[in-house]
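Researcher: Good morning. I'm working through a list of sequences from a screen, and I'd like to move beyond sequence-only analysis. For each chain I'm collecting a predicted structure so we can compare shapes side by side. This is the next one on the list. No need for commentary yet; just the structure.
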Amino acid sequence: MLGEYRITGRRASEIAASVERAVGSGELEPGQSLPPMRELATGLGVNPNTVAAAYRTLRERGVIETSGRRGSRVRPRPASTARGSIRVDAPPGVRDLSTGNPDPALLPALHDALAAAALRAERRPGLYGQAPVDEEFARRARAALDADGVPAGPVAVTSGSLDAVERVLAAHLRPGDAVAVEDPGWGSLLDLVPALGLRPVPVSVDDDGPLVEEVERALAAGARALIVTDRAQNPTGAVVTADRAGRLRAVLARFPGTLLIEDDHGHAIVAQPVRPLAGVTDHWAFIRSTAKAYGPDLRVAFLTGDAITVDRVTGRQGLGPGWVSRLLQHAVVHLWESGAVDPLAVAQSYGQRRDAVVRALAGHGIEAHGRSGMNVWVPVPDETGAVARLLHAGWAVAPGARFRMSTPPGVRITVSTLAMDEIGAVADAVAAAAGPTPARGYG
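Model: Good morning. Structure tokens for this chain:
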């Protein structure tokens, strides 16, 4: 069961740490069974309740899972093994299309915005006791949300989208709760959910967003929350259409206790309109990030939601970091005011490259998906082999294992830095590495 590894410890914290160290070092492998609690307690000479407490801690940390009579085992992807580690390092001379980063040429210069924020801070220094959200930031954020039909609600500011998602989940859920997540989906989110002790439930997606019947199945089976990417879904580029949004809202209306989280990180880089689902359930949050349009290092996102959710998020935030730097908030306001980013031009630039890749692959009989954003998802029969062959051909792409749970193999190509005259070569390389695939979708 455990091979040569011996769990040690007398207290629950020591036992849990012993298991966690072994998982982190690889001595306990994903899927490996742990001893029954009474058996381990006898071996260690401790009370079974001590082992039960240790196993509970490990479950809450996303290290192990318990499946009834099958007992406890190391999770297929423990929280201590981030999906970001499933990557391809591009050696010199290899074009890196794996990072998911925006095109630096499309990001605005930050000098003027940061200088304006610093000048404002000289006149009115940021001090303890001030409102955590700048008044002008909140006003402009709320006006943009109103224009897109997002229901009324207060505004909070977080350090990026993932920070917002984590805070919303923690505000309502407890370890062991199930969360419906897109599959394939954002790798960092698929890491975060089990790291919080929550149980991810995969929901397949197509080009129009999450499949309605799978969302209904997950909620009927007891999922407490649903996380949806409205546009520029990572890694597939899916966009929730008006028809899909209406059908999803009808399902959510039958499960009003669901915590709905919407991620609109594609705002200002896509041309497709957003179709909010919010307002149907009792608790919800709608999140927007500045990362893709204005720069990942700004680390500024904002959310709105029902009053209880936002109050819980800001209350807990106040006991930790307190607030997101108002200097950064003022810099973002300056970027908004100055029109530093032309959303239509950015969306057109990404769209031209993305659509050209999809068309070129179709010419080779390769199925690909990329309706919006900066990524293209390509189903392949042999993911590991395709990644290796592409690397040998001079192209680094992201392995699909970073983004999927039950979805068949695939690779993600980030098109943001591709030149138009490179696209034919990319398509040729993918065709040689992967070969034709049947039109089967990716959910």
